Give the backbone structure.
Amino acid sequence: MEIASVVSGPIRTEEREQALTALIESHRTPLLSIIRKRIRDQVEAEDVLQDVFAEFVEACDLGQAIEVLGAWLARVAQNKILDRFRRRTTQSNYEASVRAATNAEQTSVSRPDDEWMHAWLRAEIVNALEMLPQEQRDVFVKHELEGRTFAEMAAETGVIMNTLLSRKRYTVRFLRNQLKEIYDELE
């Protein structure tokens, strides 16, 4: 059953409702699993899931073309999660400003949302790194994460420094492209 032919359009019929329900049910478990990787609280994860499905139904009502439903739902879920994070960050920034203005005691306690965001970003970087050829990944990890110099790596591996520099440059370019959307959303 093709999504566009059954669920698009503003008219609600029993057949359309059944098709929407079937699509939602078939994507519920994998989508909730994706959301739960980023949101630990079950109730909040369910809220995000409901928001995603509400947006799906609205998109269908508006006749939007959805080519790959699973990917579309995952993207909407990611956006909903980021929206929640941004709202909390904005609220926390506002609260910090109020505390500063009233000379309240300020502490640098790490918030669970901040920890989640850092963990999520690390996971996205690791996923992007895993897409790279082993040689490029090794140079990047050794230089950026282990603090090794190119001279040390060249002496250890026998690979000339220009090759190592090129591998790192390709890796950085690749990571920029892979993570650009995330970076743009966080700004």
